[in-house]
Amino acid sequence: MDDDTDLLQRLRAGDEQAFVVLVRRHHDAMIRLASSFVPSRAVAEEVVQDTWMGVLRGIGSFEGRSSFRTWLFRILVNRARTAGARERRSVAIGDAGPAVDQSRFDQAGAWVAPPQQWIEDIDDRLRAGKMAHRIRSAIEDLPSRQREVVTLRDVEGLSSDEVCHVLEITDGNQRVLLHRGRSRVRQVLETEFGRA
Amino acid sequence: MRLGLRLRRRDLVCQQVVELVTDYLEGALPEAERRRFERHLAGCPHCTEYLAQMRATIELAGRVTPDDLTPQMQDEFIELYRQWQAEPGPEGD
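ok -> structure tokens follow
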């Protein structure tokens, strides 16, 4: 996949098609990220449009010190926060307690209900397609802060530094949210596809 | 002579291991902790499976294919672009 740099150059040169390609490339992730902050899909779409207008107006000042995507998501999150008027919670990082259900371990902390097998199925195209579909809704069902981190890290492939920058969270919080989110998604896959 | 079989006090149990998986994958465990983690894995097929499943979960998440723009949305973005181009100022030439 060619990166955004080339498209940005074309965009600066007034290439409308380059803009469409950029929008297409990032639209779905932007909608999903924005949805985490605002109450409805309609508002998320407004936030995304508003973000792109901000990007166009600010394109001359983008210096390329961060990746374009990081810059883009940062603008999006700022606008989504304003639109959602969600108060920033710096301490609450989701539900307390262990990420894996305690009842699966004995008193000494050893497995009594060990993980059921499912990863072999990834090589089966049909099953893998079902899993990819299921994982998408599993991520959508995560509590919002976990969803933001899992989406950016694991779906979009941003680095932990980039995610911290985009969401303005500490590295430690990022890891906790990532851990909870991934643990839940893994559990969904096990429940759905696991065999004892 | 059965001393070697006794659980060392600092050994990790499964329930601790599963909570450290992300820190491990992120390279965020201190060296001594990482060694304890790996020592546990070496003797525990269930936790080894669990770690493999977390890796598989990450890989599958990376395969999620994005929804494409509808033609109508695409038109809206083209409209947005033209609106920006029509704006006066240094950026909107």
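Chain B touches chain A through 48 residues (CB under 8 Å).
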